[in-house]
Every structure is written in structure tokens, then in C-alpha cells.
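Q: I'm writing up a methods section and want to include an example of the input and output format. Could you take the sequence below and give the corresponding predicted C-alpha cells, formatted cleanly so I can copy it straight into the document?
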Amino acid sequence: MGCVAHWFMDRRGLASGIAFVGGGFGGVLFPLTIQALLPQVWWEWSIRILGFVLLLFCSVNVTFCRSRFPHRKGAATTWRDTIPDPQVIMNGTGAMAITTAGVLFTDLAYFIPITYIPSYYIDRQHLSQGEALSGSAAFAYRLLAILNAASCIGRCIAGDLADRFGRYNIMIVSLFLYTISVLCFWLPDVLLLNLSNDVLFVIFVLIFGFVSGSNVSLTPICLGQLCETQEYGRYYASCFTVVAFGVLGSIPIAGGLLDVVVDTGKERYWDADLFTGLT
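A: Here is the clean output for your methods example:
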């Protein structure tokens, strides 16, 4: 994604949003593909097939990516140039450190709904794991496709708005709506035991997909405001090296919170839900 920031300046937000639509489109196809493959080739070969698909597209991507700035003649590259620079985060203004911390907490919460939406829906409908590939449980996996479809729209719209009204301004609004979607739609769906339909939860999936998609596409361009274009790669890598630890911890933390609750069914998700919203 650093290549996009190199080639676009004035409409960088829109360009980034369009580029990130590819990730959302993959998020639409992959859950449906897994659902179709599992009954045919089971888990191991389903994952292998998706891995080969990713290998193909990533190879094409790496082959055709080009930097806007040519490599400087006579400039020696050392091993230190290939690792994140702590000085980038601890710069004088503190803007990079605050942005990195914000992205860390955002991604810490972002992957919890994406991971647990199918299992939550299965528990919500009181369905067995054996029904996970057919009947009503199949909708649990289609919810991920719906979420990512909404995410595609959110990424483009947020990128265009960011160019008009400010990258950090739109990012803050998106995070606010992100929190509202979790605390005002998903949490009530967890706590209200006598709901007869899925409307509240589907609304959450649509809103969360839309605003979380904007967070994905806006993070790179917010980082791009903190540095010169030539330094963008170092800033991006330094930020996401720190953020990676949050991503690694998010799912185990949510799983631990689910294990703490003694309730069964959808009620056991309330603490993980609350953690997601507050984070």
C-alpha cells in the first residue's frame, strides 16, 4: 500500500480507498469460497487452495509494484534500513506515537467482531456446529461477506471525504461511529434475550462493515501526513510493527473473556463485546 502513497498526493485518500477495495472484495469472496470448499475437500485443502490463490495474486502484485522515486545511485543499504526505526515513533512532535497508539487500539478491537461474528450467530440461533455448513447456520458465514461488501463502500467514500475535510477528522468520526455500532447495536443484541429476528444484528454488521472499512483505508494516509513521501515506507513499517502485537493479542484476549463467562449461548459474548466497544 506504500506504493499508492508514492504515486498520489492531492487525492491520496480516494486512491487509497479504491486500492483497499481489493481487500474488501477478497473478504466477500473468501467466506463464500470456504463455505463451498469445506464439504468437498475439507479444512486442510480448503486452506491450501486459498493459500495458492493468495500466492498467485501476491506474486503479481509484487512483480508490478513500482516506487515513484528511483533508488539513489551510490546509496548503500544496510541491514538497519530493513527494520523499523524506533526514532520514527519517538519524534519530537509526538504525532507519530499518538497515531501508532490509536491504530494499535483500533486494530486490537477491529478483528474481534470479524472473527466471532459467525460463531456468535450460530450461538444466537442455538444451532449445533454440525449445522454450520447448511441451513440457517450458513447465513453466519454470509454475514462476513455482507460485512466486507459494506466495507468496500466505506473505504471509497471515506477516502474521498478525507481528501475534502481532512484525513484525521474523518478518521475520528469513523472511530466514533465504530464505537456506536458496537455499543448501540451489537451489545443490545447480546443482552436482549427475547429478540425474535436478526434485524438489530444485521444492522450492526452493515454499520460496522462500513465504518471499519474506512478505518482500514484511512490509516495509511494519516501516516502519510506525518512524513515526506520518501520516508513513508519507514513510517508505515514502524507503525505496523507495533500494531502487529495488538493484532496478535486481540483474539486470545477475546477468547479469554468468553471463557470467563459461565453463561452459554449468545449471552457469553457480552464482555468481549464491551471490551471491543471500549477499546
